[in-house]
Specification:
With 301 residues, this protein is an alpha+beta fold. It folds into two domains: 119 residues, PurM-like, N-terminal domain (60s Ribosomal Protein L30, Chain: A); 140 residues, Phosphoribosyl-aminoimidazole Synthetase, Chain A, domain 2, CATH 3.90.650.10. Helices cover 36% and strands 25% of the residues. It has twelve helices and ten strands. Strand 1 and strand 2 form a beta hairpin.
Length: 301
């Protein structure tokens, strides 16, 4: 993780934090993509996420729609890992100096993207903090609320791990991407291509849940493909074929620069994974055709 650490992100320290929290709290919610609690017989689900330092170049370029899409993707793709329907969303926006036009444009786009997922924007908070954030910088977080069964069927030997293609690097590893660009290791053209909006898989995956076609889901975000997959199933229990992943130029370039560290930081072309019975693959491929589903691996024990 040397290159990522030099860009300002310490994954080893993040893992230490996770270990401390696991020892301190017994709730499995700490390792889930989405947590839950029961209130008067109703199970409520919640997740929270932002889009990291990708927001810096997006905000500089006034790409408010992309910011909104990335924020919805970060949260609702997490929600899609379980059989849960996202029903409400709140945002938190922090700025150095409030630009009413920019922030209102961002919130309008956020509301539009949420409506496309049948999720309501319930409200939020905008905070002006000149002593904390430098001029021209903005940060944003989202909080999604869901309801549903949530539980997944038992994963068994022979089940498939199905990959859904990503739209480039999505919104992860941008501290490293920005550093490589600044150092001249990534061209302006390649850097601009990295700003493409993340795929929002939520609507398609809700169809899979509704038709009882999948057992679990994995959102491939910070920590890369392997770390996220291991949050749902032990890597010792699966056999993966990394050669099945559709080749995208950006990940080939990144691997040339940072080597195998690419697998611990980026999605490497896989934005989401599904775990399902093998007989469901054809139907899943039809519903998720735009994401070019492929067999990434199989559960072997």
């Amino acid at each position: 993780m040397e290159m990522y650490r030099k860009s300002g992100v310490n994954l080893q320290e993040a893992k230490k934090l996770g270990e401390i929290l696991k020892r301190t709290f017994t709730s499995s919610n700490l390792t889930d993509f989405v947590g839950s609690t029961e209130i008067n017989g109703l199970r409520i689900y919640n997740c929270c996420d932002g889009i990291g330092t990708k927001i810096i170049p997006l905000y500089e370029r006034k790409l408010y729609k992309t910011i909104a899409i990335d924020l919805v993707a970060a949260n609702l793709n997490d929600m899609a890992t379980k059989n849960v329907e996202a029903v409400g969303f709140s945002d938190y926006i922090a700025v150095n100096c409030l630009d009413s036009y920019a922030v209102s444009a961002l919130i309008i786009e956020l509301n539009r993207e949420l409506e496309s997922c049948n999720c309501r924007l319930l409200g939020g908070e905008t905070s002006e903090m000149p002593d904390l954030l430098r001029d021209g910088v903005i940060d944003i977080s989202g909080f999604a609320i869901g309801i549903g069964r949530g539980q997944t069927d038992d994963i068994g030997c022979g089940d498939l791990i199905i990959g859904l293609k990503s739209n480039g690097i999505h919104a992860n590893g941008f501290s490293l991407i920005r550093k490589l660009h600044k150092n001249g290791q990534l061209s302006d053209e390649v850097f601009e291509s990295c700003l493409a909006p993340s795929y929002v898989y939520y609507n398609s995956i809700r169809k899979l849940w509704n038709e009882n076609l999948i057992k679990s889901g994995v959102n491939i975000t910070g920590g890369g493909l392997l770390d996220n997959l291991s949050r749902v199933i032990s890597l010792d229990a699966v056999k993966l074929n990394m050669n099945a992943i559709p080749i995208q130029d950006i990940f080939s370039k990144l691997k040339d620069i940072i080597g195998d560290e690419v697998f611990s930081v980026f999605n490497c072309g896989v934005g989401f994974c599904l775990i399902a019975k093998s007989e469901n693959f054809e139907k899943i491929s039809q519903i998720c055709a735009q994401y070019e589903p492929f067999v990434l691996g199989r559960v072997i024990k």
